[in-house]
Amino acid sequence: MAAIAASAQSMRLTSGRLPKWAPWALLLGSFAAAAVVFGVAAAGGDLADFNIAGTLIVGMILYIVLIAVVSSIAESSRKAMDRIMTALVSTAFVIALLPLVSLLWTVVVNGIQRFDAEFFTFSMRNIVGEGGGIVHAIWGTVLITLLAALIAVPVGLMTSIYLVEYGRGRVARAITFFVDVMTGIPSIVAGLFIYSVFALFVRPGISMGFMGALALAVLMIPVVVRGSEELLRIVPNELREAAYALGVPKWLTIVKVVLPTSIAGITTTVMLAIARVIGETAPLLLTAGYTLSLNTNLFDGQMMTLPVFAYNQYMNQGTNPDAAVARAWAAALTLIAIVMVLNLVARLIARLFAPKTAGR
What we know:
360 residues, 14 helices, phosphate transport
């Protein structure tokens, strides 16, 4: 039996077709060889010195060369060209992912150093060197972003419902135009707008979490409107017409048919809007301000947020630059983790509330 299996394997290698495992083996071997080369180059240094981008690029180049040679020997030149083109397309995909992979690798390697109990239970009050934490920044980010979502999501969703279900003529075109304009405004303009309004009607120099939430809501609304509008438009008209034929009023059709049908996509849109604003720094510097202490009152006093915390720790390193930079990296990693958790929650909500089909 072993001789028969070996003979069959030999025939596959010489009959014009590589076995299915061969390209994957060559790919893994190429990445392993590139990792060894760059690992030796970074030997003796920090883990962050390992060049993951170079490893991926060199690995893909080595794989293209190997698959071209092996395929041209074991297969036809036409099949070899097909495999080369497939490898080039895959390489383009890897290059597109390089910034994300490199960013995540750098943040994780540099931020994991301060992922301890103290970092998540203490604030920066009375801390001038090592130690301290981001509990005040986490509370500020969660509360401000939550309030911004509570403001922006109903406004954006109802605007998209109006544009899809009711809007006609000049009013709808004007709303669409201004939403498109708002989508492209710089984030600092939203912060300046909210700050100017409160400076005129309350007092100059005021800063509080509620202002930061309003600034983020201004940035979230156009994202929610555009995303929800497209999702509502792809709901089949047959569903609406079936509800109307049964005598269901328009508003109830929207609530019971249109929104449940598109709830999964709308939830994803909301998460994208939150991810769009949760890392904003400029508008929060102008509106929410900066503090070293924990403040959970959105309507009284300045509040710290994670992006502002990371920015301040990097720009004002104080008496211990290494500790400040480590806190900045850890805050950035925490922010990424929060966004990831929000996306997981959004997927769970979308799965729970998505319309049930016959196959589910």
